[in-house]
Amino acid sequence: MDAEMRERLSLAGLTGSDLDWLESFGCDDARVPKPRASEIADYRRREAALNASVAALTFAERGESREGRLAAAIGAKVADAEDEAQGADGED
Predict the structure, then answer these.
(1) Of the chain's two ends, which shows fewer C-beta atoms within 10 Å, N or C?
(2) Torsion region of 81: left, alpha or beta (phi above 0 gives left; psi -120 to 50 gives alpha)
């Protein structure tokens, strides 16, 4: 992650720990790790901050931006984890 992206994300509310987490998988939306149940709130917070960082962009620009792709991937991982948890609980 370059210094400019780091600054944008810091201004959007991500902590140093969040930035380190993003860098742990190279800020690659295809490599976002699956969250454990205890991590869901952190994932949602990160997703919200990433979305806030691209709020001024058009829909197409968001999809092309690294932050927008990361936000979408994080949201998808949360949804998958929640679907799995519901299935494990026997809910439909």
Answers:
(1) C
(2) alpha
Contact present, 27 and 49 (Cβ < 8 Å): no
Q: What is the pTM of this model?
A: 0.88
Q: Which residues contact 11 (CB under 8 A, 6 or more apart)?
A: 53
Cβ-contact 73, 32 below 8 angstroms: yes
Q: pLDDT tens, 44-91? A: 999 999 999 999 999 999 999 999 999 999 999 999 999 888 876 655
Angle between helices 16-24 and 3-11 (to 10 degrees): 130
Closest Cα to residue 73, out of 31, 26, 40? 31
What is the span of the domain harbouring residue 33?
3-88
Amino acid occupying residue 32: V
Please give the tally of structural domains in the chain: 1
